[in-house]
């Protein structure tokens, strides 16, 4: 929904990270994810870009910011401002080990029912059609867990918007530390939204992205 709403004003592209969507068969790695994001930026042929990353995509975007600073004009971290180090990571390691033991089709049915119960069909149907990357979860979280904390922000050489759902208690747990670690970062919360803030309030999420993009354009 964000792509359609933003396309009239900005050149935009969405990417499938390794193990997701059209790249479902590709093995996950942060290196591969970084290369995919870099290729997408190049495909726009507009120079450095604003990169928006949600959850796992947010941590991949932090890695991209570290490896390819010359391609980054701005960064939006959505649902990705919690440290993945220390005790916080323990339950996620447990989940990552548990997921491969469960049939993928059963997990997909559960997810389909949950999304349709929580959100309007027009918001979630595209996600449901594209499927889920459960098979990628163990490798992805194995690499991400233990790697990122607020210190990762020192590698980001562009302005940052930390965009979280107000009720996303877990993944906004470190937002203040992340913001303090960067001289040009600010936090914006979407009221009453949870981890999938872009589903809970698509218009508010899109508006936040649009305003930040316009600010970057005004500065340049």
Task: Give an overview in words.
The chain is an alpha/beta fold and 220 residues long. Helix content is 46%, strand content 11%. The protein has ten helices and four strands. Strands 1-2-3-4 form a four-stranded parallel β-sheet, with helices on both faces. The longest helix is centred in the last third of the chain and has 18 residues, at 202-219.
Radius of gyration: 17 Å
Give the fraction of residues assigned to helices.
40-55%
Low-confidence stretches: none
Query: What sort of overall outline do the alpha carbons produce when their principal axes are compared?
Result: globular
What summary fits the major beta sheet? 4 strands, parallel
Tally of contiguous helical segments: 10
Order of neighbouring strands in the sheet with most strands:
1-2-3-4
Mean pLDDT: 93
Residue fraction in strands: 5-15%
Number of strands: 4
Separation of the first and last Cα atoms:
27 Å
Structural class by sheet pairing and helices: alpha/beta
Query: What is the H/E string?
Result: HHEHEHHHHEHEHH
């Amino acid at each position: 929904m964000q792509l359609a709403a933003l396309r009239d004003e900005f050149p935009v592209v969405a990417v499938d990270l390794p193990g997701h969507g059209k790249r479902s068969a590709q093995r996950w790695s942060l290196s591969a994810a970084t290369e995919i994001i870099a290729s997408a930026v190049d495909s726009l042929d507009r120079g450095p870009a604003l990169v928006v990353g949600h959850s796992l995509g947010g941590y991949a975007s932090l890695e991209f910011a570290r490896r390819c600073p010359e391609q980054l004009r701005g960064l939006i971290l959505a649902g990705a401002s919690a440290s993945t180090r220390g005790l916080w990571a323990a339950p996620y390691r447990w989940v990552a080990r548990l997921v491969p033991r469960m049939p993928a089709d059963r997990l997909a049915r559960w997810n389909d029912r949950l999304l349709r119960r929580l959100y309007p069909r027009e918001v979630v149907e595209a996600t449901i059609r594209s499927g889920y990357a459960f098979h990628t979860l163990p490798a992805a979280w194995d690499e991400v867990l233990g790697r990122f904390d607020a210190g990762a922000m020192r590698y980001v050489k562009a302005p940052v918007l930390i965009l979280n759902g107000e009720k996303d208690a877990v993944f906004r747990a470190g937002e203040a530390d992340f913001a303090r670690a960067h001289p040009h970062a600010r936090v914006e919360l979407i009221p009453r939204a949870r981890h999938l803030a872009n589903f809970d309030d698509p218009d508010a999420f899109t508006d936040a992205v649009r305003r930040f993009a316009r600010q970057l354009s005004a500065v340049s």
